[in-house]
User: Fold this.
Amino acid sequence: METMPKLIYNGLNMMDEMGVVQITFDTTANRIHVLDKQYVCEPAYDYQKKAYTFSDETFACAKVLFHKKYILIDIINFEEWIKKVDWVFYSNKSVILRYVDARWYEYNWKSQQSFLYKNYQWKH
Assistant:
């Protein structure tokens, strides 16, 4: 695999402590890998919709990434950009979450899916 650009994102976690998120960009696949072990920008589960959604913290992180322009898509609108990017969240949950084509998918940590970033998959 080619060298992919990486970024560290700092933010407040759910305990209002400063946390660090590791982000890797797969520009050829329009994919963003987010390793969040400190609960900084995890997607939230909406119990009414019975589905995951971008939390306020996830939107804040995404806005920073949108302005960094690592993943360029012919869309200027931030909301449309989020839907067009393939997001993979590696977090403290028992699953890896993927948001692609405006839909959420869950994978277990031992999954061998080709889209997973192996350097993050084994840090669980």
Q: What stands out?
A: The longest helix spans residues 56-68. Residues 6-115 form one domain.
